[in-house]
């Protein structure tokens, strides 16, 4: 038989870890996405709990309320079912404390003791249907006395649960006999992930309850390392920048609305102080070839002057040339095309940093 972990009051060290918080560099992560609480409401659960006048079922209700309050907020979805008879008290939903505690409050505290037999195997079989509909790892926390006096034995049903679904079955024992406890031990022994705890231990000591919640529902893992910083690589090349500067006819003045365009170039040259720039001015096809060469040169020089005055770029880093009406941006004689052809293009050469 595989190992069965018993959560008892002696797990004081575990409780101390819970109380003092996570170790440095660790984070709390959930073991299961979905948590199905299932409570045995058969007649045998009306046995008196440890002679204190409260039934096992009433004690299970108290313990379940404490358990959901002890769960950390890790984004679980939870559901609550009872069996004998099988009934959904809360379908699987994102866990909110107010909603799940209300569902626990709706759980009956008393049921008929006689004539209300214990179909533990059938209860697990019925629970397989809602489990089959949800993705992700699932924890089933079963509150039962381990009684079985009707229907299929629970062991083969539990084996099918483990075989067909990503599920861990944990058992809170209210066993009143050695035979009942043996059944519970066998259920918990079917999987290494299962945890068994005696209800009396969990009700008597908060540290034991916290340890059970931790062992079934969450764990500590190293905090993910921060992403590695990007690797910078310097490469020597030329960057072309098409400045959207539109000039009036026969004008080299940079209009105010285009100052932001020149600022892009100025900021680049400031960022890379070893770079140089060749500024090329253009015109439209209106006017003589010679006059357009002169006008385009003046436009390039206007950009150069702006960079020197507004961005403190050394004149030795800047070269201004004019190509006149050559290499038009648009081959057309429309007013719109000519406006686009009155422009400036810049070629910036230097060592640039690229992030890989």
Automatic annotation (TrEMBL):
Q: Where does it reside?
A: Cell outer membrane
Which part of the chain is the VWFA domain?
34-217
Its cellular-component GO annotations read: cell outer membrane
Q: What is its main location?
A: membrane
Q: Where would I find the OmpA-like domain in this sequence?
A: 234-352
Under InterPro entries, the record lists: Bact_OuterMem_StrucFunc, OMP_bac, OmpA-like, OmpA-like_sf, VWF_A, vWFA_dom_sf
Query: Which first-to-last residue range defines the signal peptide?
Result: 1-24
Answer whether the UniProt record assigns the keyword Signal to this protein.
Answer: yes
Cross-referenced Pfam families, in alphabetical order?
Answer: OmpA
Q: Does the keyword Signal apply?
A: yes
The UniProt keyword set, sorted, is: Cell outer membrane, Membrane, Signal
Which SUPFAM superfamilies does the entry mention?
Answer: OmpA-like (SSF103088), vWA-like (SSF53300)
Transmembrane parts of this sequence: none
Q: Which domain of life is it from?
A: Bacteria
Q: What is this protein called?
A: OmpA-OmpF porin, OOP family
Per the UniProt record, the source organism is: Paucidesulfovibrio gracilis DSM 16080
């Amino acid at each position: 038989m595989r190992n069965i972990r018993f959560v008892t009051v002696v797990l004081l060290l575990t409780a101390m870890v819970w109380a003092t918080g996570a170790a440095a560099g660790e984070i709390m992560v959930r073991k299961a996405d979905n948590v199905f609480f299932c409570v045995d409401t058969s007649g045998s659960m009306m046995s008196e709990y440890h002679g204190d006048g409260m039934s096992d079922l009433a004690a299970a209700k108290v313990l379940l309320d404490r358990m959901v309050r002890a769960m950390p907020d890790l984004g679980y979805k939870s559901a609550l079912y009872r069996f004998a008879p099988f009934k959904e008290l809360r379908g699987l939903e994102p866990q909110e404390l107010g909603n799940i505690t209300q569902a626990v409050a709706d759980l009956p505290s008393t049921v008929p003791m006689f004539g209300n037999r214990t179909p533990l195997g059938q209860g697990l079989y019925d629970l397989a249907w809602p489990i089959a509909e949800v993705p992700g790892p699932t924890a089933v926390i079963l509150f039962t006395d381990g009684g079985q006096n009707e229907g299929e034995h629970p062991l083969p049903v539990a084996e099918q649960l483990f075989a067909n679904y990503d599920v861990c079955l944990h058992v809170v024992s209210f066993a009143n006999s050695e035979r009942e406890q043996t059944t519970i031990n066998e259920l918990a022994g079917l999987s290494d992930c299962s945890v068994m705890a005696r209800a009396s231990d969990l009700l008597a000591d908060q540290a034991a309850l916290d340890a059970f919640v931790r062992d079934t529902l969450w764990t500590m893992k190293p905090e993910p390392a921060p992403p590695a910083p990007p690797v910078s690589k310097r490469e020597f090349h030329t960057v072309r920048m098409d400045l959207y500067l539109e000039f009036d006819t026969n004008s080299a003045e940079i209009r105010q609305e285009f100052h932001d365009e020149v600022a892009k170039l100025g900021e680049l040259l400031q960022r890379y102080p070893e770079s140089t720039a060749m500024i090329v001015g253009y015109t439209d096809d209106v006017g003589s070839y010679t006059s357009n060469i002169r006008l385009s040169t003046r436009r390039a020089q206007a950009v150069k002057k702006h960079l020197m005055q507004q961005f403190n770029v050394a004149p030795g880093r800047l070269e201004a040339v004019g190509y006149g009406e050559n290499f038009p941006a648009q081959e057309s004689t429309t007013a719109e095309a000519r406006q686009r052809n009155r422009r400036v293009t810049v070629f910036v050469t230097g060592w640039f940093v690229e992030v890989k």
